[in-house]
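sanity check this chain:
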Amino acid sequence: MKKIVLITGGSDGLGKEIARVLNNDFLVIILADKEDKLKKTAKELGVDYFVCDVSSYKNCEEVINKIIQKYKKIDCLINNAGIWIEGFLEENDFEKIKKAVEINLLGSIYLTKLVVPLMKKQKSGDLIFINSQAGLNAKAKRAVYTATKWGLNGFAKSLQQELLPFNIRVLNFYPGKMKTFLFEKAGIEKDLSNAFEPKYLAKLTKEVLLLPKEIVVSEFGIKSLKQ
């Protein structure tokens, strides 16, 4: 049986492109919170799907249990779901702040917590965190977004040490600006002329997953020379 790969935020953008690139070599399952778009993407790519709101631990738990019941294993979790928030801190809406923390950081923590016991039992697994250049470099008017990405950075780095004895690889990816719907979904117009196509990060993700299990790529960054 092919390795089982879960991808959050899999209905569009980078998540969809990763699913497309991985689909021939892996059994791909995409997760997102809007069923209509998720179902349409799953049908287009020929992959499985589960509706999942990553900001809800209860929902994450229900979905992971269903996947384990159906497939008996999970070989890779790609924490890709994320939303954008920017502006002066005092002008950021509280509910948007809360949602950004829940989706960008807590969602990855919740799902990782739920799949780690199974991976430990399997004595193998891959955890991939789609971070951001914001996880390395701070900018003005990005306080909340940067906080979520720095939190994700620390979470992943700690797990790299914690899970190494169990043959679980933890990979932290730092992409720059990509041609996705990240900004559009937040209602913000951005010039994407200097952004790169998500297919390049998707291809790198595949290459890393196909490496022998004793080879670990702990982190890499990717961005356009124009950024």
Q: What stands out?
A: The first strand starts at residue 4 and ends at 8.
